[in-house]
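Quick one, T. Sequence first:
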Amino acid sequence: MDWLSRLFEMMPVRGRLDLRCSYGAPWRIDQGPGEANEIPYHAVLSGSALLENPAGGRPLQLNAGDILLLPGNQRHVMHDGSGAAPLPARNRASFNFTISENLGSDERLDLLCGHFAIAPPHDRLLRSYLPPRLVVHAGTVAGQTQSDPAPQLAGLVALMRNETADNHLGGRAMLNALSTAMFTLVLRLASETEGAPRGLLALAGHPRLAPAVAALFNEPARPWSLPELAQICNMSRATLARQFQEKLGRSASDLLTDIRMTLAANELKKSSLSTGAVAEAVGYQSEAAFQRAFKSHMGVTPAQWRRMQEPSGRDVFSGLAVSGDANPAKG
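Structure tokens:
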């Protein structure tokens, strides 16, 4: 199994469309932070927007075809760049989604706003391996084929646009399923783009390091050594260690531990296997060593974690309310 499929098997992600925004200048969106386990997204269908830099630097311009993910889930501000006071916006409920609009008459921004939900504690792990903000462009350029991720992503967004054009039967289910697929396609495109941001995307997008990433995800219980990983990548041990640090910001051992702890957390939640059996299943010969690693990683012991996962009647993927205000709506 490829590393991205394996990642989403380990930590399921569900997408949800919250709003379709239609704004004429002047407009402003002030959003976030959302729920702790959410990653907001915005897809620009037409028009343009400026995303403020939280550090005070130059704003980032987003154009039609751009998709913005905010794994950092921090407060963010988008506007038309005019500096004028925004026109009041109002929300109106459609059958399967919500439309936010104002009465501006200039070139309009058409924007899809939603979020991805990841079950804790996987949200922290995934966020730590992704940049605080990620922008990809869904479109086609000369030489691209329909099998390339950019035109695939453009086609998916076009489907979402069509679903929000009217109240189709099953529209909400379609929009949420397409949102979920969007997350995978955005990460696929980002990992294949030159200059992928530091983290798992840059690591997996490096052709010589990709075999090591696949090996760690597919055989996490194996006692991988640095020389073994270096051999399957056809590079020296020192080069592999340096490349991991430069691309991922962490060592191969750190990534392996994160994968093992994620699998262990899942197993402790869903099965009645003993702690020792779980430890062995994820590659620990010593239950004591596993106990120490799990508590260091999760902040609680395996037994405490298992008790915390007892059914509470609440699905972390459902009941996530759309936040908003009247001037303008927050996606």
